[in-house]
Structures are given as structure tokens and as C-alpha cells.
Amino acid sequence: MSQTIKAGYRIMSPNLTDYDSLYHSFNWQNEAVNLEGLPANKGLNIAYEAVDRWAKGDDAQRIALRWIRKDRSYQDYTFSGLQQLSARFANILTTLGIMKGDRVFSLTGRIPELYIAALGTLKTTAVFCPLFSVFGPEPVFQRLSRGDAKVLITTSALFEKKIKPLMERLPALRYILLTDGSLPLDARVLSLPRLMEEAGKDFLIPPTDPEDPALLHFTSGTTGMPKGALHVHKAVLMHYVTGKYVLDFHKGDVFWCTADPGWVTGTSYGILAPLVCGVTNLIDEEEFDAMRWYSLLEEHQVNVWYTSPTAIRRLMRMDILPMKQFTLQPLRLICSVGEPLHGDAVLWGEKAFGMPILDNWWQTETGGIMIANYRSMKVKPGSMGKPLPGIEAAVAEITKDGVQIISEPGKQGQLVLKSGWPSMFRNYLHDEERYAQCFQNGWYITGDLAKTDADGYYWFVGRADDIIKTSGHMVGPFEVETALMEHVAVAEAAVIGKPDPLIGELVKAFIVLKRGIRGDENMKQEMIGFSRKKLGPAVAPKEIDFINELPKTKSGKILRRLLRARELGLPEGDISTLEKSG
Ligand code: AMP
Predict the structure, then answer these.
(1) CATH number, domain at 553?
(2) Ligand 1: which of 425, 459, 469, 473 to mutate, most ligand atoms within 8 Å of CB?
(3) Cα atoms found within 13 Å of the Cα of residue 513, Cβ hemisphere only
(4) Domain edge (last residue) among 254, 282, 315
(5) pTM for this one?
(6) Is residue 498 part of a domain?
(7) How many domains does one find in the chain?
(8) Closest ligand 1 atom, CA of 371?
(9) CATH number of the structural domain spanning residue 59
């Protein structure tokens, strides 16, 4: 199946016309010449490539961002306007004494200040870390403290609800900038609009080494608290290359990535890649709503749309045929990422939009798309596609002797990537050892299981660990268990992902209550309420079971895999390490 080309706007030849020939001739240097670099050979800075270089000459008045408010009114920001706003923000940070490498966090919905702050921070060579505004106070605290946050940008409402109670536990957090406060509350809590007004609109980006840290994204681990994956300014080359070959950006395009910048997709592709490629980036402040989404695609004449399997499954359940009810001629490409996109969803794209939905694969650590389906390449529904030109992928067996590549098609193993691509994470913050464990014999071990077929397509099999993917978001069981354990009635807790037709997996907790406490419906509701308050609805368990004992290994490790098998009625596998109860 290749993409159906309909009349009108969709006739635009793809940037990648022949996968095999580009894959074999690809060279990063040849692509790097399409970036400008800082003037006077002062290095490479993401914000310069995304904004400043367009803010001169003919492109200055083109629309860089279109922000759609909840009430559907919208505001446009040109490249020139964005240059000045991000420069003002950079000047604020400099005045506040923020230095190269310092961490600047955001906790907001999708509002312009978030985008301005991200670009302004990158200009100063400080490191930007966007947090998901739906996180509860505990995940927010974990990330701010582990990330050594010096500055946080947030709204008054989120400040009151989530940050104020944490202030004493975060002594290193020097400044909080309120996006909607007109007056400073005290010496630590300042008004961003006031500071923006006072700041200068010119900012000279300091010399930036391509290896200077730029972005921090937290991702969940199976054990321990979230890991902060650190990315560098050189990642901009990946934003450019994937924007060009996977998202097929053409000058003048309108692009909409539905992911929140609190997740890596929402930053690499919801902020940076479209700007780096000079296309207009749509931002919708509102959450998912099928009719709204279809009508936004129509009204704003979106050409390229990047969304998630959870959203696609939601749309598939509704009785709407978008091509009949909406004028979507400009739309020529739909891509999906974050969880498996099953073949039926790919084919639904044909029926609903006249084109297959193109799946691609990557993760927080890779910083950009690694495996993809391309407009010009035959699509095999259910496959993640083939490695991006410039990326060497393989399926391997990891033994104590190292990485053994499996060349046989159809045999599953760990998905590995040859290390060294531009947007590869350069560390886990404060955790060199964990970082080192991800690499063997020059390969990065992704933690996913996959297989290839005889034509070189990659097929996702599953995770090699216990990490849960719910609505496209990684949730570490340990983080949820830790929060549950804080409830006075809880003796022990274990958390698994349970397959769910809509959100991929739902977070399910097994709880052992303290002696004498009854696990009835009221207690269940109490636990759900407690964890939602602590963790936020995106992370908190949706289902809870009370059990008498957790299955554990003889060394005391919770056997989540066994709980999962029992829950799903699957074979229990090897239970030789199981500690017998009694
Ligand atoms: P994150 O770091 O939150 O972006 O999550 C990365 C993980 O999401 C990967 O390691 C996979 O387990 C999963 N994932 C991402 N894209 C896909 C895809 N196209 N198909 C299947 N799983 C995916």
C-alpha cells in the first residue's frame, strides 16, 4: 500500500522519494549544511536554528506559531515576533543570574509563554525542562528536585495548587515566574508579564557548543524514580532531518502535533522540528475532542498531522467520516507515535482520510524519530517501518558476552541502535552508571522487544521491562507504588499495566493492607482519590485490587510479571525464584 494521492494540495512530491537510495547514500554532514550555525562560527544553538535565522529577510513575517485558545479564537506569532519575545525571556534569565547549564522548568498548559520560555532558555544555553501540567504534586516535586530546578515558569492557579505546598522542600528553586501575575508576590515569586515588559528585545546568543546541554526530559524507569535524559544542542540536526524526511515538511506547511510538550514528542516535534524547518506550528490549548480536532484540521488547513494511537482509537470509535463532513484537502500526511499502531488503525486512515496513518517509533532517550514509515515507501500495516537514513538499527540478543545481532527475520530480540546519532541522550542526570548500562559494544539498548521481516521492516513486540504505557505516557510502577505506600492503610503495593482497548494499558495496583484494615469498596475509592491527588490523573491507578500477599522473588523483589500473567490469565512462566508463602 502506498499513499493515495488525491486531487489538489496533496500533490506534492515527498522529500524522501527513494528510501533505499537515501539510506545508502546518507551522510549527516550533507544534511548539517542546511543548518545555519551561529554567526561568526560561534557554534550551533537550537533556538537560533528554530527562530532567529528565519527572523530576517523574507521569512520574518511568516507565521511561526498559531496558538488556538480554548474558545477557538487564535493568536499568531511571526518568526520575527517570536525572536523578540524569546530574546526578552533570555534577558530575564540573564538578569536573574541564570547561567549556562542551569535548569529552567515549566509547568503550564499549552500557552504561548511555554514556547517562548523554551526558546528563550535555549538562547541563554541554560537547560529547559517542560513538565506535564496534569502531574500531581509528587511527580512535580520529584522532577524539580532531581533536576535541580533554579527557575520555574507556571500559572497562578498551578502555583497555588501544586507548587506552594512544595516551596519549603525546594530550597534550590530560586525563582518562580507566574505567567499571569501582574505583580511580584515576593522576592522569589515574580510576575512574568511585568518582567517581559521591562526586558530588552535584543539578545545576543552566546557561543554554543553542539555538545552543550539543551533539554532535559524525565522518563520512567522500572526501579527507582524518574530518570532525567539530557539532550544537547546538536539534537537540532535530528529535528531538521526527521522534519524533512519523516514529517515531510515543505516551506509554507501548517503542522499540528497534538502531544503536550511535557512529553518528549511535544518538545522535539511540538515546538522545535517545525520551527527548525520553517513551517507554521499549530498549538491547541484544549484537550482531545473529536469534533474540535476535525474542525481545527479544516479551519487551519493543516498539511501534516502528528498524533498518537490513543487519539486515533478514540476517533475510530466515533461515527464520523471526516472526509465527508469536513474539507480536508490540504492534509497530505498523518503520522503516529508513542504506542503500537495496529494495522486496523493504519487502514482506518485510508477510509477516513484517504491515506494510511504512518507509524513511527522512538523514545525519550533517542530525542527524535528513529524508525518510520515514509510517504513514498510501501506501508505494511502494523509495522513501525524502517530505520531513518543515518540510523543503524538491529534486533539483538543481549548476553553476558555482549550484543549478538539476530539477522534472521521473524526472530524477536531487543531493539538496539548504533550509538552516536545527533539527538542521542548524553546522560541520565546524576546517574552515570544507569546511563552506562544502556550501552554495550557500541549499541544503545532500547528496552523494547522487536523483530524484523524479510523486507527489513521492524515490528514492535513489547517492552522488555515492567514500564507501563498509558495513553502514550510512560509510567514507572515504582513511582506509583511509592506514592501508594504513603497511605497509612497500605502495607505493600505493586503496580502493573493492564491492556486496555482505548488507552493501551491502564495502571492497575495490587495492594496489601495493614492488618485489621478492610479492603472494601470505600477503601478502594479512598485509595484512588489519594493517589490521584498525589500523582495526578495521568499517573494514578485506575483499578485497584486488594490481595493478601504480593508474589516476590526469594530476594524480595516484587514479581510484577507474575501479577500481570495472573491478571490476564496467561501462563505464569518461570517461577523458580518465587518465594513460597506461608
Ligand atoms: P517515551 O520515552 O515516553 O517516548 O516512550 C518510549 C516508548 O514508547 C518506547 O520505548 C516504546 O515502548 C513505546 N513506543 C513509542 N513509539 C512506539 C511505536 N510506534 N510502536 C510501539 N511502541 C512505541
Answers:
(1) 3.30.300.30
(2) 469
(3) 15
(4) 315
(5) 0.90
(6) yes
(7) 2
(8) 19
(9) 3.40.50.12780
| Cα of 282 from ligand 1 centre, angstroms | 23
What is the full DSSP assignment across 177-229?
EETT-SS-SSSSEEEHHHHHHHS-S---PPPB-TTSEEEEEEE--SSSSPEEE
Domain's final residue, options 286, 315, 344: 315
Other Cβ atoms within 10 Å of 46 Cβ, number: 30
State whether the beta carbon of 364 lies less than 6 angstroms from ligand 1.
yes
Q: In a structure prediction context, what are the per-residue pLDDT tens digits for the chain, which is 582 residues long?
A: 444 334 344 568 999 999 999 999 999 999 999 999 999 999 999 999 999 999 998 999 999 999 999 999 999 999 999 999 999 999 999 999 999 999 999 999 999 999 999 999 999 999 999 999 999 999 999 999 999 999 999 999 999 999 999 999 999 999 999 999 888 889 999 999 999 999 999 999 999 999 999 999 999 776 667 899 999 999 999 999 999 999 999 999 999 999 999 999 999 999 999 999 999 999 999 999 999 999 999 999 999 999 999 899 899 988 888 999 999 999 999 999 998 898 999 999 999 999 999 999 999 999 999 999 999 999 999 999 999 999 999 999 998 889 999 999 999 999 999 999 999 999 999 999 999 999 999 999 999 999 999 999 999 988 888 889 999 888 888 889 889 989 999 988 999 999 999 999 999 999 999 889 999 999 999 999 999 999 999 999 999 999 999 888 766 677 888 899 999 998 887 676 677 664
**Does residue 238 fall inside a structural domain?**
yes
Domain that holds residue 532: 468-568
Residue 138: all three cell numbers together: 509528587
Residue 352 lies in a domain: no
The answer, yes or no, to whether any atom of ligand 1 lies below 6 A from the CB of 467, is: no
> Which residue's alpha carbon is nearest to atom 4 within ligand 1?
363
- Cα–Cα distances in Å, from 520 out to 223, 491, 511, 513? 29, 16, 12, 11
Is 31 inside any structural domain?
no
Which atom of ligand 1 lies at the shortest distance from residue 446's CA?
10
